[in-house]
């Protein structure tokens, strides 16, 4: 990639983009490093072009309106203008002319590749028993439950979040032109300015609505979406503040139930409130705080109903309560607490 002393900007930009891509893929060997150093030393324009390519790689959003990006766009437009003018003038193209146009196009294409390959995702997570509050750039407040991961991607047109595991509450900064979406496995919640929580369980996605309105949709792997709730004005269950949507992520089953808003937020202080929850769901939630993970070894006990308030970190009290009310027995094994059916 050693270049002559004088080149046009498009060739230098193309080479700078290629070096940026190669460096991003891993370390250069000795010969490649010497080649890169020689290329940088050949011309000050090379160093400048490389710095611009690195800036684009690390944050296109931050430099979208800088002179460098404006120049890239202008060069692309100028290349198209020249190509069209020559086409309609029926002038004879030399191989050199085609070569320069191709080089300019390749430079623009490489810059576009850098733009597309750059993933502006930010990930926030908590460990076992840990809780965390995050303020996003748009003013949205995200409260993460224990053992939770939320990925965030924001641009000028959208705010895309993904709940990878656990549970989080979203107090969404209002922006009607830039909806906020939360994808949880294959269920998508859309809002523009409201307050709600999303929880991911083994077979379910749950949404508790605290303020405003949200739309909840099923999203297939190819990105196609369909609503899973009646649209406004049509008969059927409606998710309103103070209610909870419980949607299966493996079937079409969806239902809405009233919920105690204040008790539903007790997890923010480390307390877990169960009001007629299946044991399988209660165990999922307890395991976000439990150092010794609870395991249900017999499916017959997964549907037993659990009521009460427990400290998330106190798995022993939870197990004691469950075993006292239901035919369940517990044993410790390999750092886990195994729950199984206890015959009469």
From TrEMBL:
InterPro entries: FecR, FecR_N, Ferrdict_sens_TM. The keyword tRNA processing does not apply. Residues 124-215 form the FecR protein domain. Keywords: Membrane, Transmembrane, Transmembrane helix. The chain crosses the membrane at residues 97-117. Residues 14-55 form the FecR N-terminal domain. GO terms for molecular function: sigma factor antagonist activity. This is FecR domain-containing protein. It comes from Sphingomonas alpina.
């Amino acid at each position: 990639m050693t270049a002559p002393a004088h080149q046009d900007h498009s060739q230098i930009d193309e080479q700078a983009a290629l070096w940026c891509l190669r460096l991003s893929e891993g370390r250069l060997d000795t010969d490649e490093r010497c080649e890169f150093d020689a290329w940088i030393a050949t011309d000050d324009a090379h160093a400048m072009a490389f710095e611009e390519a690195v800036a684009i790689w690390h944050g296109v959003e931050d430099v979208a309106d800088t002179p460098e990006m404006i120049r890239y766009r202008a060069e692309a437009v100028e290349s198209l203008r020249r190509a069209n003018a020559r086409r309609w003038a029926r002038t004879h193209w030399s191989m050199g002319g085609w070569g320069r146009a191709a080089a300019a196009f390749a430079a623009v294409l490489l810059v576009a590749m850098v733009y597309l390959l750059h993933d502006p995702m930010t990930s926030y997570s908590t460990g076992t028993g840990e809780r965390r509050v995050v303020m996003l750039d748009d003013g949205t407040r995200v409260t993460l439950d224990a053992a939770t991961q939320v990925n965030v991607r924001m641009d000028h047109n959208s705010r895309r979040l993904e709940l990878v595991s656990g549970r989080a509450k979203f107090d969404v900064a209002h922006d009607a032109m830039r909806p906020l979406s939360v994808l949880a496995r294959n269920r998508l919640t859309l809002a523009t300015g409201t307050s709600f929580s999303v929880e991911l369980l083994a077979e379910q996605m749950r949404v508790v609505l605290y303020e405003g309105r949200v739309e909840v949709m099923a999203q297939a792997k190819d990105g196609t979406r369909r609503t899973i709730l009646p649209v406004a004005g049509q008969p059927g269950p409606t998710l309103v503040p103070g209610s909870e949507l419980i949607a299966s992520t493996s079937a079409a089953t969806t239902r809405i139930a009233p919920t105690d808003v204040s008790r539903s937020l007790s997890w923010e202080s480390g307390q877990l409130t169960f009001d007629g929850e299946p044991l399988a769901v209660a165990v999922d939630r307890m395991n976000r705080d439990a150092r010794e993970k609870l395991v249900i070894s017999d499916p017959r006990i997964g549907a037993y109903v659990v009521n009460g308030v427990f400290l998330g970190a106190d798995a022993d009290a939870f197990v004691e309560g469950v075993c006292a009310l239901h035919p369940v027995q517990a044993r410790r094994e390999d750092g886990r607490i195994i729950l199984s059916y206890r015959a009469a």
